[in-house]
Specification:
By secondary structure, the protein is an alpha+beta fold. It has three helices and nine strands. The chain has one domain. The chain is globular.
Amino acid sequence: MKPAFIILVFLISSCQSGNTDLLEKNTYQVVSLLIDEFGTSLKFDHPQGEKKADSDTNSNPTIGINKVLKFTRERLNLSNKKEEKSYLKLLETFNTFREDINLDLKKIKVKEGYNLIFIDTTKTKQEQYNMYDRQLYLSRISFDKNYKKALTTISIKNGGYYLCLLNNIKGNWEIEKSEMLYIY
């Protein structure tokens, strides 16, 4: 009886570990994609005009990201009621998150051509404007059970707050749709 119980406990813990690894892998893939898409797709201009990345020079823009994937306190809705039921289910899950997840900068794989660093929250807002060409704040990510669809939000300082619907096609995450919810 004891060997069977030990094997059962081992199998259960192995499955939970595998799910955690899969969650982490997909989380970092989505985070990397969002940073590449939203961190570099807009012009690098500061509202005050102090610092501007110029594509004609060798300067690499600096993108600051928050150290945690935040849970969102506000309840979100999909504006287009024709969304697939799978995204509506993901939105329900997304709205239930109540804890943040810490990020590991070394696990984020982004394109070259810019510097990626954590936002220094000990700095004043003005100092932050001078340190980063772009500031991104990422939220928790809601995945379906097969890691084929995902839903999340991203805030761009002096940009917008976006709801993103993603698809995993042959192991590669792609943004299916992003909708600006409001200007941030």
